[in-house]
Amino acid sequence: MKIQNLVLQRIGTGRVPIEDLGATYTAKAGLYSVTRDLLAMVYSATSTEVTAHILGDILDSDVYYRLQPDLPRAVELDEADDESMDELIRIAEEYVARSEVDQRLRRIARKLFDSSLSRSKL
After folding, report:
1. Which domain holds residue 26?
2. Residue 2 within any structural domain of the chain
3. Alpha helix (H) ranges present in the chain?
4. Residue 1 resides in a domain
5. Is residue 54 part of a domain?
6. Can you tell me the distance from the alpha carbon of 27 to that of 21, in angstroms, rounded to the nearest whole number?
7. If DSSP codes are grouped into helix, strand and coil, which group holds residue 71?
8. End-to-end CA gap in the chain
9. I need a labelling partner for 120 at 20 to 30 A (CA). Which of 25, 70, 90, 103 fits?
């Protein structure tokens, strides 16, 4: 069954390198070398990346879109100082300026616009 007039756009908060994630959460406990591989397995099993892959498998590529920039480091939830926010804004601006991301955003906008036109004719 083909899904029509549907766009599922997921905007991620950024993908952190596994090495940085492990260092962030285990270095203080001195367990980094022991838990790195275990942490990577747990992270991958609970990651939103798993959801992204599943949705990508079951939905057509013209229905499901995922925007997920790569982050150079882990960013804590409460890290809202000006320097961190400026860094995240710069990363987002560089991400959307990439040709493949720009093309994806244009496809989404075109599909939403076309859908809007077809609904207005009803």
Report:
1. 8-120
2. no
3. 18-26, 32-46, 48-58, 82-97, 99-120
4. no
5. yes
6. 10
7. coil
8. 23
9. 103
Q: What is the pTM assigned to this prediction?
A: 0.63
Whether 86 is in a domain gets the answer: yes
87, 32 in Cβ contact below 8 A? no
Query: How many whole angstroms separate alpha carbon 91 and alpha carbon 94?
Result: 5
Q: 49 CB contacts (<8 Å, ≥6 apart)?
A: 15, 68
Task: Supply the DSSP symbol for 79.
Answer: -
Looking at this protein, which amino acid is placed at residue 111? K
Cβ–Cβ under 8 Å, residues 73 and 63: no
Tokens of 5: 């007039």
Are 58 and 3 in contact by the 8 Å Cβ rule? The answer is no
Task: For residue 64, give the H/E element and its range.
Answer: strand 64-67
Give the whole-angstrom CA distance, residue 7 versus residue 61.
10
- The tally of domains found in the chain comes to 1
Instruction: Identify whether the C-beta of residue 112 lies closer than 8 Å to the C-beta of residue 7.
Output: yes
